[in-house]
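Researcher: We are triaging several targets before committing to wet-lab work. For this one, the compound of interest is LARABZUK. I'm pasting the protein sequence and the ligand SMILES. What I need is the predicted three-dimensional arrangement of the protein with the ligand bound, expressed as structure tokens, so it can go straight into our comparison scripts without reformatting.
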Amino acid sequence: MSTTPNILDKIIAQKRLEVGERKELYPVRLLEKSLYFESTPVSMRKYIQRPDLSGIIAEFKRKSPSKGIINAHAPVERTTIGYMQAGASALSVLTDKPFFGGSNEDLTLARRFNFCPIIRKDFTIDEYQVLEAKSIGADAILLIAAVLTPAESKTLATLAHSLGMEVLLEVHDEAELQANLEVGADMIGVNNRNLKTFEVSIEISKRLAPLIPASVVKVSESGISSPETIRILREVGYEGFLMGENFMKHSRPEKAALEFIEQLTARV
Ligand SMILES: O=C(O)c1ccccc1NCC(=O)[C@H](O)[C@H](O)COP(=O)(O)O
């Protein structure tokens, strides 16, 4: 078993420093002046459930701790517009720079060219980041159970909701799921990737599916690379499918997404 100790700890330690710096550079009163602060977010939950779309949340991700560089050159505009035109239900944009090569500017650029919901994919640990997500044009935020207490998740989710954004709460096992059922997340994402070992298995999504309340939209995250896997995940109740590397590893990720969604549609 390949182990990469403490990547989450490293990411969170770095994030704390980064958030401290950003608070000084861009105080909340500046964030609140952003045009997006007053905008009405688009419901990611509703888009995932739209029968005319694929349920796929297509991710813009340049690199990752598990894979290194995935795609250093794909432009945000062409890729995200292409994802949407291909039939993705929503976009996920990584905004973490040190570990994923993303930025807030990537999300704002995607926002400028797309009307579909966009989730800010980052490691949210502070209320400041929720305000920041709103200010850069996000419709939803990710909360990762492995790095937050349920009380912290609830506070962050409540703030996100007060700004009109939705919350995707990510879990990886039964204990995380049970501990966070009262957070009030709009969507629960089961990460098929163990963020400590980087092992990927959709068995985790299958195992946790019956434990997720019916009122919450189920999303399966990571390691999805075939329409057949989506068919299996749909059978156990998943409506959302977060996919990054499988598209981004191609020089034209949006073409890969189109081909994938065409195959998916042809098979069901
Ligand atoms: O992807 C990683 O290596 C990773 C490492 C540590 C924390 C988070 C990580 N990934 C974030 C994600 O959840 C994925 O980007 C997302 O689910 C898409 O996964 P994939 O389709 O396998 O690119």
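Researcher: Any quick observations?
Model: The pocket of LARABZUK is lined by residues 7, 59, 61, 64-66, 191, 193, 195, 221-224, 242-246 (CB under 6 Å).
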